[in-house]
Backbone:
């Protein structure tokens, strides 16, 4: 039986090391790049959610202020017409009123939450009802 | 002559093994860092999804404190927390009375290995029923 002799010349081990080193470094670099982009994506997603929920929280605080204002107007008015007039006259500068709907926007870092509430008839226990609660991205923002 | 060649080969193998050990030490650290970052990204994704779900549930709940209790959150003062193994969610809630109702506000914070991942603000206004007709 013939035995084939495998020769291991000088330089072969070094060449092998270079190949292994290069491939392992490439693999390591790809792993790090992939995990870093994962983290960056999750951070961006968390940042986006923080912004959206902050807008929702601000909208709730605004409705609390609006409810006080509506209640004050309701207490001072003598009729439905007078109530609506009083509400429209003293509304906050960033709010608009049309056809019984009060609209305003909450903004933060290129995100905007459009809000609209419908004013309930004068004397109702619940002074308003939510009609719109919509998040939009402003054009040219970082989020697009 | 042959002995000298064998010595050179041995020396080369020794150098190669030494470099290989060094390379392995560096690569193990890189892979460990990658693994730990990947774990953090996973935890962040899960915590975010749970935090968002909790926000929605808290918004709908009549008794938010009871809901947190049912979901397994432990109370320590004003802070409710739940450890999910890889991350911890902390909920801080507080009621404040307004002239016409009550405002529930707070935050949902996610913590991973003593690092704050995110903080979701929360607020819900509950109009007062007793204020019929308005305030004077």
Residues:
């Amino acid at each position: 039986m013939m035995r084939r002799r495998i020769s291991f010349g000088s330089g072969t081990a070094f060449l092998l090391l270079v190949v292994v080193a290069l491939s392992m470094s490439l693999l390591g670099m790809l792993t790090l790049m992939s995990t870093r982009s994962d983290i960056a994506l999750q951070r961006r997603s968390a940042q986006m959610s923080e912004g959206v929920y902050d807008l929702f929280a601000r909208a709730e605080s605004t409705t609390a202020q609006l409810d006080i204002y509506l209640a004050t107007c309701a207490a001072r008015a003598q009729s439905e017409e007078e109530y609506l007039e009083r509400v429209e006259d003293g509304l906050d500068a960033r709010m608009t009123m049309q056809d019984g709907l009060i609209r305003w926007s909450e903004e933060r870092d290129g995100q905007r939450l459009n809000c609209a509430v419908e004013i309930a008839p004068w004397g109702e226990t619940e002074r308003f009802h939510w009609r719109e609660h919509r998040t939009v991205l402003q054009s040219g923002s970082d989020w697009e | 002559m042959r002995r000298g060649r064998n010595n050179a080969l041995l020396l080369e193998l020794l150098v190669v093994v030494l470099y290989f050990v060094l390379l392995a030490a560096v690569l193990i650290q890189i892979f460990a860092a990658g693994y730990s970052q990947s774990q953090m990204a996973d935890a962040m994704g899960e915590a975010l999804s749970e935090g968002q779900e909790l926000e929605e549930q808290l918004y709908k709940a009549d008794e938010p404190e009871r809901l947190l209790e049912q979901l397994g959150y432990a109370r320590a003062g004003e802070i409710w927390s739940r450890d999910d193994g890889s991350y911890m969610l902390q909920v801080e809630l507080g009621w404040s009375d307004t002239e016409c109702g009550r405002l529930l506000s707070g935050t949902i914070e996610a913590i991973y290995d003593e690092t704050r991942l995110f903080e979701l603000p929360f607020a819900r206004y509950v109009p007062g029923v007793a204020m019929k007709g308005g305030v004077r």
User: Anything to note?
Assistant: The CA atoms of residues 2 and 48 of chain B lie 68 Å apart. The two ends of chain B are 111 Å apart (CA to CA).
